[in-house]
Amino acid sequence: MSEKVIEVVLRSASSWSSAAASETSKQTDNVDITSRSYSATETAEQSIDDTENFAQQESVEKAPPASVADETPKKEPPRKDSVLAAPFLVLDREEGEFEDIILTKDFEDAILSMRRPSAPTHEDRAHTDPRKGSRAEEIANLNLSAKPSPLLMFRKEVRLQVPQESLRLSPFFHEALQDPELGCNGKAIEIQVSRRGFLTVEALLEAFEFLCSPSKPLDQVQVTRQNQFAMFAAAHLLQLEPLQAHVSQFISNRLAVTTVMLALTLAQKHRDSNLLRSAYWWLKQYLMHTLDSSVPAPDGESVTSVRPIFKNENNKIVNGRFAVSLAVFRPLVAETDARFAVYSICKAGYDLCRVERQRAANGGYPHIYTLTRDHDGSFVMAAARYTENGPFFISVDPKVIIPHDRCYAGCITVNYWGTKFTLFNHGVSDDVRINPAMLGLPVSARKALMEVSWETNLMADKPRVLHAQFPDPEPDSQQTIKLENLPPRWDDRLGSYTLNFYGRVTVASAKNFQLVQAGDLDNIILMFGKIGKDRYHLDFRHPLSLLQAFSIALVGLGKKRVVL
């Protein structure tokens, strides 16, 4: 038994309003109950170049869709039994718009050919109806052994024959497929496309090709900067989750100052949390870059970029036609705080880790530090110091270590002499948060998590002395925990100061130290020591968190002006 195919009609509404198009669809015999109407005006207003360019290809002539009967004569599509059932494809548009093209190859060739406009020849003008003259003869002589790709392309209408099983893969068609008469007596599924929004017939064709070829690699789907928002609308309309995720990631990776507000609007409309998150972080970094040059601009932007006028109106960020409520960002702030809270949890037992430093050429800066688990080498955190006396930036991504991006876990600032270091969380300082240029964008508040200080030692005639203090991590505690380094003992035989590291440290270094709580010298809280060139062991336990312990190691390795 042959597989049942369903006719799907894609109509471009051209200059018709969505309301008029919807009303017209109800009067059309071949859509009846099974028709589904979709207006892209519900998604967002038209405001990007590719949508406008596509709209210019549509006629401004106000005429009803092809399926509606009126007194104006128009060419009729070829009969279903003579064309749609044949294994070939016909593209036909009114003269002056596109060539009349007949293809016998695959679906992708058809789409590519449809995008090549050219001036019609005199012969083309004489044979715009594929049922007449030489066009009909060419159709009759086609090789019918080719793989079927039935498609009719008219000026405002595309008719597809899609296997019913393929349509079942899209939740959008579930209701329509309940009709047992669908596919019989001319009944079809109609999708009405308004020119006001981002959805286009071309994007729907790409989506249908993916629907009919679910095994097709996503990187072969034709998503470009020009059609990305049309593909986003098509994927969400047909509810194709793999395609939705692919297009959403494509947009996220190519956000720019001209598209970020549009991406936020669509993400909010379609509840696309990944795109909303990406656009939020892009906007946050962009706004902070305008205030602080140490925060790099987002990819693709620079200080010379033309900046749009973002405004805060009634607790909304407004740019042109687009407005996004600040309230949609608050869950992202809470999500970020929860994600980084994991690195501030204290464990009862010892956590055994390794720290490795990578220097730039000739030992210069930046210095990159990586923290891994000692037992399996799994990555935990990374940090970077870009200048000799600059701050340390900490990240949970070893490849992206920049302040205030989505992987930024905190920073360590230092005073001029290199004797006092302060660890801050991933938040934004108050003076930046309340700056009008931030537009009231919700961001995490900056908090100091720990202070580490060193006693001066210009003559290097005694071991280093380190002090650390931070709030007690126990709930409801108002106490401050103070740690100090365990004083090493002089060994006459070795002629140097020594500490027992229980086999965890193998190379003598002035940077080796142990921390204990003030007044309790028997319980070691942290051990840090060298095991090779730019390689160190870091062992710690409660009350230190992972972030605090890593920061103490960074402070121990960093250069200090008056501590030798």
Tertiary shape: elongated
How far the N terminus sits from the C terminus, by CA atoms, comes to 86 Å
Structural class call reads: alpha+beta
Mean pLDDT equals: 75
Largest sheet: 12 strands, antiparallel, barrel
How many helix segments? 15
User: Uncertain regions: pLDDT < 50 for 5+ in a row?
Assistant: 14-155
How many β-strand stretches?
Answer: 23
Strand content: 15-25%
CA radius of gyration is 33 Å
Can you list the strand order of the major beta sheet?
Answer: 10-11-12-13-14-15-16-17-18-21-22-23
Task: State the helicity in percent bands.
Answer: 25-40%
Characterise the protein shown here.
It is a single chain. This protein has 564 residues and is an alpha+beta fold. The protein has 15 helices and 23 strands. It has helices at residues 18-26, 49-57, 80-84, 107-114, 122-126, 133-140, 164-167, 201-212, 228-238, 241-253, 260-270, 273-291, 330-341, 430-433, 546-557, and strands at 5-12, 89-91, 101-103, 151-153, 157-163, 189-193, 311-312, 316-319, 322-325, 351-358, 367-373, 379-385, 392-395, 408-414, 420-424, 448-454, 466-471, 480-485, 489-491, 496-498, 513-517, 520-532, 535-540. The strands form four sheets. Strands 10-11-12-13-14-15-16-17-18-21-22-23 form a twelve-stranded antiparallel beta barrel. Helix 10 packs parallel to helix 12 (273-291) and helix 11 packs antiparallel against helix 12 (273-291). It is elongated and about 105 Å long.
Name some characteristics of this structure:
elongated, twelve-stranded antiparallel barrel
